[in-house]
Sequence to fold (123 residues):
Amino acid sequence: MSTECQDPLQHPQVQMAHGGQYIAAYVFSLILSALPLFLVQEHGYSDTHLLFVVIAAAAAMTIIQGYFWLRLDVSRTQAWFTASFILFIPLVVLTIGLTAWMFATLYTRTMIPTLMHAPGFTH
Fold:
């Protein structure tokens, strides 16, 4: 066991932290969150356009937060963090996609099909 005392403030990841970058990421995140919100509230665009704006804002926010907050880049010290984050993205997309599919088809999968087509049945 090592008795050497290391200063946590000398750790490379702590040295990379910078308050200005955190504030910049926060401001960009606020802007990228407010933009789709205001466009959806206006109801001035089609659903397809709104979907693309929301997806683009979410992708841009993910990249900005990954770079400014998590300090993900291709440098030697951050390569494993970046690789693990990139491999994590399909898992999140798959989870959200399957959850959306499950709730979109929940009614038809949980109701008894013969009762749904009975005369006088309304839903």
Observations:
- Residues 79-104 form the longest helix (26 residues).
- The two ends are 69 Å apart (CA to CA).
- The chain has two domains: 1-71, 78-123.
- Helices lie at 12-16, 19-42, 47-68, 79-104, 106-110, 113-116.
